[in-house]
Specification:
Residues 50-60 have a biased composition (Low complexity). The protein is mainly beta and 306 residues long. It contains three helices and 16 strands. It folds into two domains: 19-204, no CATH class; 208-305, Sandwich (Immunoglobulin-like), CATH 2.60.40.10. Helix 1 packs antiparallel against helix 2.
Amino acid sequence: MDHMRIALRRTSSAAVAAGVLLLVAACGEDGTATDPVAGKVSDSPSATDEPSPSEATSAPAEEEPAEAGTVPVYYVGDTGSGPRLFREFRKVSGEPALGAAEMAAAGVPADPDYRSAFPDGGGFSSVAREDGRIVVTTTDDAWTERPSGMSDSQAELAVQSLVYTVQGALQTRDAVVVESPGGATTLFGIDTADGVGNADQLEVLSLVNVTSPEEGAEVPDTFTASGVASSFEATVPWEVRDGSDAVVARGFATAEGWMDALYPWETEVDLSDLAPGTYTFIAMTDDPSGGEGNPPMFDTKEITVG
């Protein structure tokens, strides 16, 4: 991939100003990729945390959420095709789904390339499954209408950030209803009264996402990288770059599928020839067009090789 230079940090907002229009209300359910069980506690989720596309999409209704655990949280990141959602696993205390929603709205992502889709000023007071739906209650009416400066596409992306996050924490693809103390059922002006489903993964999620290594991880000179992707012919190229942006290692992983959803991938990364220090691991989508089509999507993680 010598023909392609990847901006490792801070894609400019001008380059991604054209946001992707997301499918929000009454979207078809997507059962091809669920997140790990919310109650599972892991400081560094491994490749085994990646779900099989054939796994069930909902936990038993009688199963109570764990009191503490690691949950998937969906943040916004920039791509060559506009802002999309990236998943990060975060440890929360208390009720996992509420903790996940709060983390999506006000948490600081571990990866500095990500950001919350939510403006300041609001919050969530509860998340519960009721009659086949997920009901999220806000602390006040601050997020009922779309605030000044937030575009339609940004509002839609924020709604999907919440939908994917609470669905992942509860291990269900139930539609989401947002209610305010004043009785409104809109979130940033988007009506949720009939339930909002998760939009198509290929329209709203980054097409490649690194689960392990995590941002800032210390890794041995040989480690297993993992994540999810939807990349041409299931090929997920990866690179390791040093502080001068020079490629010092490269290879590829093969995902479990492609085209219709994001699928798990993992690969062994051998850096035994490198000196100890700080590097950047990059996973990306394959570009069979040689730069003629849409730009590849990528996810980067800064690592320290011991």
